[in-house]
Amino acid sequence: MMEFLYFPENKMEYIPAVITLVIFMVMAYVTFRYFRNHASKEEAKMEAFEQDVLRKLENKELKNERRI
User: Fold this and answer.
1) Transmembrane stretches, by residue range (predicted)?
2) Is the dihedral of CA 4, 10, 11, 14 positive or negative?
3) Would you kindly state where each structural domain of the chain is located, as residue ranges?
């Protein structure tokens, strides 16, 4: 009926699959953490840049108001 499924009698044959699964899960977690940390650093840089631009625009507007 289901000849395509293979369930070994000797459960030791599962060990390489489990080891591979664990390795890939750890690598996926490390990659996730890397992207998350990198994104938070980029967000902090962008917020600083945004504040700098807003401060410069505000100073420019104040200078223009003083001239009027």
Assistant:
1) 14-35
2) negative
3) 11-66
